Amino acid sequence: MNILITGAAGFIGSSIAMHLSKNKNNRIFGLDNIDSYYSQKIKRLRLKELKKYKNFFFKKVDITDEEKCYNYIKTKNIKLIIHLAAQAGVRYSFINPSKYIDSNISGFLNIIFCAKKLNINRIIYASSSSVYGENKNFPLSEKEITKPINIYGVSKKLNEKIANTYQKITKINFVGLRFFTIYGEWGRPDMLLFKIFKSYFTKKKLYLNNYGNHERDFTYIGDVMKIINKIILKKFKNHKIFNICSNKPINILEILNIFNDNKQINVKLSKRHNADILKTHGENKKIKKELNFKKFTSFYSVYKKIFFWYKINKIYKH
Ligand SMILES: NC(=O)c1ccc[n+]([C@@H]2O[C@H](COP(=O)([O-])OP(=O)(O)OC[C@H]3O[C@@H](n4cnc5c(N)ncnc54)[C@H](O)[C@@H]3O)[C@@H](O)[C@H]2O)c1
């Protein structure tokens, strides 16, 4: 199948592209603007790995430019779009909120317009656990009320509303994925696990808000790849939303302590930031039932593997 992946130089996008490129029957078309939110070198290195696959193709395109998106996609006979390009990160949404409006909302609309014009009737898109905001009815099921507390969460909630609307007025079927703290090889350097690793190897200070008292429902990228594969095969109709979470929240300090037994990490604890959600904890019954995906990877079974992966990938330590 010919599949377009937006955000293909990103953490989740490159991982999915790698996974799907292993199937020779697929032709994977990636696009990304390779923005500078975090190291562009990391993004280029991911693309270098991907270009080893003869059935992977890439173009630098910004999804805020509908015409360029359309011109890239129009000749590719795309049957499915996996839309992951977005301005990620909660904290940065306090610094540069308009980027979230442009990339996450206008960008998403542009992708939908392209799909509509080209009769592409399937879009799998990234939402986020941030849509739940301060809802504390743990574990949060997909039916729970969404009340985001930052522009990032608002942009993802609006993505879901937009998908709802366009599902009704076009022939496009949508699947929205509410990702909960995805971690693993090729991970994002602005996320906790790789920040801990960076401090471990470079002795740079590790800043932890709210004195480290956060819990996150850590979800392994290997599980995300398998889940997306199953979603592709299942061909859901209309608009489905799934939590992508392991349903096993872990306290940040507990994770820190695993790597800090000799107190080699220079930790600086500080008070809570307005952007922070104290706990994320999703329910994953729906994904287990509808996709027959039963076993989520435990953090404790993979963290060593990821730590050693990080250790040999020097690019992350700069
Ligand atoms: N990683 C997580 O834990 C997590 C959690 C919740 C939601 N998400 C969502 O999943 C998706 C992928 O996240 P990720 O962790 O891989 O982030 P990422 O930042 O690594 O990947 C996003 C990619 O999109 C690209 N991009 C940004 N704006 C663009 C634009 N205007 N045009 C083209 N490309 C653009 C970036 O260059 C980047 O490579 C995002 O939509 C994110 O909001 C991720």
Description:
The protein has 318 residues and is α/β, with parallel strands linked by helices. It has a single domain, classed as NAD(P)-binding Rossmann-like Domain (Rossmann fold), CATH 3.40.50.720. Helix content is 40%, strand content 17%. It contains 11 helices and 13 strands. A 7-stranded parallel sheet has the order 3-2-1-4-5-6-11, with helices on both faces. A two-stranded parallel sheet has the order 7-10. α6 links the parallel β5 and β6. α1 runs parallel beside α2 and α3 packs across α5. The longest helix has 21 residues. The protein is globular. The structure holds nicotinamide-adenine-dinucleotide (NAD). Nicotinamide-adenine-dinucleotide binds next to α1, α5 and β5.
